[in-house]
């Protein structure tokens, strides 16, 4: 039986590679976000759908596709930059250009986007996800602490009987 050696492969939607670099993973997540956006482009191009609902579609469908698995990412400046560029690109497609004068148009600035979306950009969303996970892990650790304290209390109150305090395998 021969086993092929590969430089990277996809496992549960995440790229696994030998050098453990995130660049390939981020590139794949952004590509999947682009595919999701372009599969819904008729909605995003429609003048019948207001910007409010286009934003909701972006926030609830496209952005989660891009940040899937972010709990294990190490955020370097280049990764933050790539994700920010992707988010602004989608926002520019949703909002389009701004009319400056009669017959002239301009692209919205990044500051204008952040004011319009109330600073709900992709990087702030990532920090909320990470903070929420940290809070959940903290609560889990607290519950483990309470469980171990309860277990110790039960063992000490019963004089150590009926408690598993000895190793399962004897060292003899």
Q: What form results from the Cα inertia axes?
A: elongated
Our count of domains comes out at 1
Q: Main β-sheet: number of strands, strand sense, barrel status? A: 2 strands, antiparallel
Order of helices and strands: EEHHHHEEHH
- Helix content range: 55-70%
Mean pLDDT: 76
Number of strands: 4
State the separation between the terminal residues, measured CA to CA. 42 Å
> How would you write the strand order of the largest sheet?
1-2
Work out the radius of gyration: 25 Å
State the helix count.
6
| Derived structural class | mainly alpha
**Beta-strand proportion:** 5-15%
* Low-pLDDT segments, ≥5 res: 162-172
What topology does this entry show?
Layout: E1 8-11, E2 14-17, H1 22-39, H2 41-45, H3 51-66, H4 77-95, E3 98-101, E4 104-106, H5 110-116, H6 122-157
Antiparallel strand pairs: 1-2, 3-4
Quick tags:
single chain; two-stranded antiparallel sheet; two-stranded antiparallel ribbon; 172 residues; disordered C terminus; mainly alpha; 6 helices
Description:
The protein has 172 residues and is mainly α. It has one domain. It contains six helices and four strands. Strands 1-2 form a two-stranded antiparallel ribbon. It has a two-stranded antiparallel ribbon with strand order 3-4. The two termini are 42 Å apart. 11% of the residues are buried.
Structure in a nutshell:
Helices cover 59% and strands 9% of the residues. The chain has 172 residues and is mainly alpha-helical. Helix 1 (22-39) packs antiparallel against helix 3 (51-66), helix 1 runs parallel beside helix 4 (77-95) and helix 3 packs antiparallel against helix 4 (77-95).
């Amino acid at each position: 039986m021969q086993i092929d050696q590969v430089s990277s492969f996809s496992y549960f939607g995440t790229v696994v590679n030998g050098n453990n670099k995130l660049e390939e993973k981020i590139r794949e997540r952004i590509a999947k976000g682009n595919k999701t956006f372009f599969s819904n482009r008729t909605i995003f191009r429609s003048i019948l759908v207001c910007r409010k609902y286009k934003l909701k579609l972006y926030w609830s469908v496209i952005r989660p596709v891009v940040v899937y698995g972010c709990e294990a990412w190490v955020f370097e400046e280049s990764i933050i930059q790539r994700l920010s560029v992707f988010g602004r690109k989608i926002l520019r497609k949703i909002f389009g250009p701004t009319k400056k004068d009669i017959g002239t148009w301009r692209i919205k600035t990044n500051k204008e986007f952040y004011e319009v979306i109330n600073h709900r950009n992709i990087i702030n969303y990532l920090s909320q996800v990470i903070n929420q996970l940290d809070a959940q892990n903290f609560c889990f650790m607290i519950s483990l602490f309470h469980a171990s304290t309860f277990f110790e209390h039960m063992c000490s109150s019963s004089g150590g009987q009926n408690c598993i305090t000895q190793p399962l395998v004897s060292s003899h």
